Amino acid sequence: MVNFSTISYLEWISGRPARATHDLASSDLRPEGPSTGVVPERLRWLGDEDDVTLEAQLADVYDRATGNVHVTAGASHANALVAAAFAEGRVLVERPGYEPLVACSRAFGATVDRFDRPDGRLDPDSLAEALTDDTAMVVCTNRHNPTGRLAGRETLRACAEHAAAHDALLVVDEVYASYGSEAADGPFGGPSAAGLPNTLVVGSLTKFLGLGDLRIGWVVGPDELVERLKTAAWYFPVVAGPSRALARRALANRDRLAERSRELCTRNHDLLATAVTETYEGTVPDGSPYALVGHPEYTGDELAARAAENEVLIVPGRFFERPDAVRVSLGGYPEAMETALAALAAAVEN
């Protein structure tokens, strides 16, 4: 039976960034905030690519066939669709982790167990120990949400092979994979698990390219798995035509847009890393503008409450199963993020 239980994090975060004077909670690279018109400002003066479908563009990005791609209304829609189609029996989800990835599998009737990612590192051996023959699906993020740790292609391959040995599906949510100071091999300049055995990857235009208002996501995987997704997709809303058209424009200009995003990652990572070294406990992975950090004198809720007194929004770590910490994300202009970090430091010191 389908059970849509409360997703505490989504209910908590809803509306808060728009009300915050200093937003250190939003993890998408969208410094100018939500779009005020139909066309996002950074797409307004860019050209389109004629006579190509969005699926064909994404297939080119991932070096796959068009039939390996299914477009969704954002990554949350993609993850829900994957759960609806494949979550059965036992599903393994990383810990600490993003609450909706646990909730989706449970909502569609699966029993959810966990495998650990100490300090956010993806360890294939740890996953192998957690796998059993009744495991239907393994779900993880890359970069890891909430720590920002990045797993390389070979680590992802080892995880896929362990899952395949138990006839289990590996699902990798890659919405943060492109975050970094330099481009690497893979979609938008980040490592991808696309093309690995028995693997589905989830992506979107929301995080790295900062185009969340379009609500465009996708799933990439083997033909037979994508066909099953397409069958299940008829039970969900379809993607709006205007969003598809603007997504095509974004992908036609992806290199230009990605360059701006990498600059934000570089500058904001450096700001966050300096702040953590001076005041907090934790590690800011290379190139990541977000991290899970703590303070020796406060729990995550206490630190978030002190921050709120100074009109700073950060995410309590209890939403990621780390009540001792908070997730701090720098997605805005570096000048604004520097001011926000100073306000957070003042709140902690008072």
Account of the 3D structure:
The chain folds into two domains: 17-36 and 255-349, Alpha-Beta Complex (Aspartate Aminotransferase, domain 1); 48-252, Aspartate Aminotransferase, domain 2. Helix content is 39%, strand content 16%. The protein has twelve helices and 13 strands. The protein has helices at residues 8-13, 16-19, 54-62, 75-86, 99-107, 124-130, 153-165, 223-233, 241-252, 254-279, 300-309, 334-349; strands spanning 22-23, 69-72, 90-95, 111-116, 135-141, 169-173, 199-204, 217-220, 281-282, 290-294, 312-313, 315-316, 325-329. Strands 2-8-7-6-5-3-4 form a seven-stranded mixed beta sheet, sandwiched between helices. A four-stranded antiparallel beta sheet has the order 9-10-13-12. Helix 7 (153-165) links the parallel strand 5 and strand 6. Helix 4 packs across helix 8.
- Beta-strand proportion: 15-25%
Please tally the helical runs, counting DSSP H or I stretches of 4 or more residues: 12
> Which CATH class of the largest domain is shown?
Alpha Beta
Helix proportion of residues, in percent? Answer: 25-40%
Domain Aminotransferase class I/classII large: 53-344
GO molecular function, one term: transaminase activity
InterPro entries: Aminotransferase_I/II_large (IPR004839), PyrdxlP-dep_Trfase (IPR015424), PyrdxlP-dep_Trfase_major (IPR015421), PyrdxlP-dep_Trfase_small (IPR015422)
Protein name: Aminotransferase class I/II-fold pyridoxal phosphate-dependent enzyme
